[in-house]
Amino acid sequence: MFHRNFVATVVLTSSLFVFVNAFNGDMTYYDPSIGTGACGKVYSTQDMVAAIPVSIFNYANAPANPNNNAFCGQQARITVGDKSAVVNIVDKCPGCGGEGIDVSPKAFEMFASLGVGRLKVTWETLSPGSGNKVNPAPTGATPGTTSVNTPGVPTLVSTPSIPTPVTTPVVPVPPSTPGIPAPVSTPGPGPSPNPTQVAHCPNVNQQATPVGRRASRIWGKRLVPAEIPSEHA
């Protein structure tokens, strides 16, 4: 039981040593676009990436597949005097001696022109590796400051919300139909008004014919029945 716990403690201590140790050596530059790195990806000269010595990359108990190496995807901070920059470890460097580090041209130019070729630096790892993953692009060197990125935490960009215009449906207005005037009722030709009936008054000079078939020729005299001539007279 004691032996098993002792071995576990040694392995844990060895792993922590890999992640937090600081190194001192020469910094050179290389072209990361010429092929796939040990971590399984290809990068450009404008990426902030680095390769570390094989002797450090192949730490104790490192996986056989380099893509799963604990250094893949780790960030390292490089310091030269009062300048520093952060790079992503993406490859191993067979030609790097001791504790040197090989970086992309863009990372090297954070400290000096490419014509310098080699610089004495100090570099240290910042976070545990995630295996075949690259953390967010590190920032460049800033004189007098140390730039450190927190891996795996995306930067949230606040975008002002743009109110969505409310679309009011347009109700089509039916075309105005000119009104048709109602037909004017023209009274048809009706019966001619009755002519004024004029009462024909008898002539004042005329007298009604006395009852009977014989009219009396006697005017101005009221006849009594006895004076009316008989038909048979």
TrEMBL record:
The keyword Signal applies. Residues 1-22 form the signal peptide. SUPFAM superfamilies: Barwin-like endoglucanases. Residues 130-151, 175-198 are annotated as: Disordered. Keywords: Signal. Residues 25-122 form the RlpA-like protein double-psi beta-barrel domain. InterPro entries: Expansin_CellWall, RlpA-like_DPBB, RlpA-like_sf. Residues 175-194 have a biased composition (Pro residues). Residues 136-146 have a biased composition (Low complexity). This is RlpA-like protein double-psi beta-barrel domain-containing protein.
